[in-house]
Amino acid sequence: DRKFPYKAYMTAIRLDGVSKVFDGEHLAVDELSLEIGDGEFMVLLGPSGCGKTTLLRMIAGLERVTSGEVWFGRTRGTDLAPRERGVAMVFQTGALYPNRTVQENIMFPLQIAGKDDAEAGSTAVGLAQILSIESVLDRMPWTLSGGQRQRVAIGRALVRRPKVFLLDEPLSNLDATMRTELRQEIGAMTRDLNVTTLYVTHDQVEALTLANRIAVMRDGRIEDVGTPTQVYNDPATAFVAGFLGTPRINLMSATVNVTAHHRVRLEFGSQSIGLDPTDRRSLILRHHHGAPVIVGARSNAFSLITTQDAPNQLTGTIRAFEFHGQQSIAFVQCGIEIVDPDRIGRPRPAHASPLAEPTPSLLGRFRRRIGLGAAP
Ligand code: ATP
């Protein structure tokens, strides 16, 4: 259910077992493989230090790969110089030429490419209109707001019509309103230009709203790739489940109890709930009496009730109640063991047997996991 949705010949970027080792010992990217389709908007999402920027820089040619291959379509790009790759990149703080006006900044890549000033100038003006910065074309970079600077940086990156557009947290230095506005514009522009885009962020709202597909990265590897709804509703691992969604998903330790009538109950210490017998997870779990599992449930799967004997009820004490405007969040202590997704499912050392220590799995992914008895 996570098949590459683009035809093979449409692949714009293919990473084939790409690794990056810094200083001979620090593994920043670990044999990572990923395909990004032609015209696709892929978001690379993950916590700080997981290797997102390093991966982007290897695609741009700013960092050499230690091993593995980078392909652009059918062209092997691993050893190409940055300017031979047809790639444009925008960083967290758009680095502009300080001594050039906005228009000159945007025109410059075209001039280097040999276009005459008139043509370069009119292309820059057209792009400035799309980016809503035509009123500042004659200004110098230091007079611009953060949002305007980023727009200029985006304009300068796109002016040569790159095949591949790489953005590294381009909105992280902007205030909330500007971030939303520019986010929408980036989405619209990349769609209009049909440019293949790889967008790095650790902001899940940016990921969910912009992406055709999201790749969730952790410790130099990809843990999950899929459309926003796939990754949100059917995450591959507990870490991915915990990374996406606010408030954070509840990940609860449980034990599978299969009753005499093949009904599956999930036991949380002294409390339990029954699964619908037709639920796909129920059909799998009924062969795994006694198995430890992690049950993932987002807060909107619960409702607060005051009756005593409703089916599938967990009993607890409200510890806090927060008003968030659109929603309110109740924090309820139910005496259930809560699992920290950052602490489980880290890649197992190569020598460990997958059956040595059966670690619980995320309920939603049992199809794949339980047959192995392995960690998520
Ligand atoms: P952030 O979201 O904080 O920018 P990231 O996911 O982009 O993080 P990277 O910047 O790619 O992560 O870094 C991945 C790992 O590689 C980190 O542990 C980092 O310290 C290390 N690293 C990155 N660049 C170098 C370098 N030039 N030399 C040594 N180590 C580096």
UniProtKB/TrEMBL annotation:
InterPro entries: AAA+_ATPase (IPR003593), ABC_transporter-like_ATP-bd (IPR003439), ABC_transporter-like_CS (IPR017871), ABC_transpr_MalK/UgpC-like (IPR047641), Mo/tungstate-bd_C_term_dom (IPR008995), P-loop_NTPase (IPR027417). GO terms for cellular component: ATP-binding cassette (ABC) transporter complex, substrate-binding subunit-containing. Pfam families: ABC_tran (PF00005). GO terms for molecular function: ABC-type transporter activity; ATP binding; ATP hydrolysis activity. Keywords: ATP-binding, Nucleotide-binding, Sugar transport, Transport. Residues 13-244 form the ABC transporter domain. This is Multiple sugar transport system ATP-binding protein. It comes from Kribbella jejuensis.
